[in-house]
Amino acid sequence: MVLGLRNQSSVTTFILMGFSEYPYLQVPLFLLFFIVYTVTLVGNLGIIVVRRINPKLHTPMYFFLSHLSFLDICYSSVFTPKLLEILVMADRSISFKGCMTQFFFICSFVITEMFMLAVMAYDRFVAVCNPLLYMVVMSPQLCALLVAGTYMWGGLCSLTITYSLYELSYCGPNTINHFGCEYSALLSLSCSDTSFSQIVCFIISTFNETCSLLMILASYVFIVITITKMPSKGGLQRAFSTCSSHLTAISIFHGIILLLYCVPSSKSSWLLVKVATVLFTVIIPMLNPLIYSLRNKDVKETVRKLIMSKLHSQLTSLK
Length: 319
What we know:
Elements: E1 13-16, H1 26-53, H2 60-88, E2 93-95, H3 96-129, H4 134-137, H5 140-166, E3 175-176, H6 183-187, H7 195-228, H8 233-262, H9 270-294, H10 297-318
Parallel strand pairs: 1-3
Antiparallel strand pairs: 1-2
Helix pairs in contact: 1-2, 1-9, 2-3, 2-9, 3-5, 3-7, 3-8, 5-7, 7-8, 8-9
């Protein structure tokens, strides 16, 4: 189809298959994903609240972390509620516009998070390699600019890819072998030439993945060089502890992205695609607050004080 023409799609509604091929797993999966989603919301909202109420956490690192938590809430909420719905409801439909909207937001949030992790790597580089000037270099203005840039870039890339999908024709069938409007699943339903959309997606995906990984790699190369020059073991341990949580989050996030890239486009691989997407959109958003809070003394101390204060107020009211 020639770019610029209006979408001639005859399909107005898609049917999401989800995990319907395993009917005996519908209720257990619903309960599992509901618990995970609840933990995701509580954990990430907790990170945002804790950062706001503790003055010690009003630093660039926690500013970026609070935005990472916000992104986790957002892109988990794009897919998970619909996934929970189709697991227990007979109606598995989603409108064409709703499908495109879902794809736009999931793509936008994922790209934004990809570069947010890269920005956090740069933040760790400044903190370890230039600690005395850390607060000067990572000024509030620069932090706000970096965060705004990641959101704008994520939105622009997602808009471009979504537009390339929207311009395709969808003549039927209208059954998506997925629990959400994932790119390859949508592409497989098109009855027009998909080469332009595939080229656009390949260029944007490769550019974003390469750039974000290079930014992270460059930051950590300088961090390792600086760490190796530290004379004391105490300084080495502090430097490692300040980076370990971020490295864990990066490894999980990009590991699953690369897994999705490597999955072959065949009918036999759809289950693997769905499982990898579950890990990416449902499990990762739950893990990030656990990774950062369990390894961070300031976060754990703030949470402990909140719990103790709540218990004290309840005991006082009972007396």
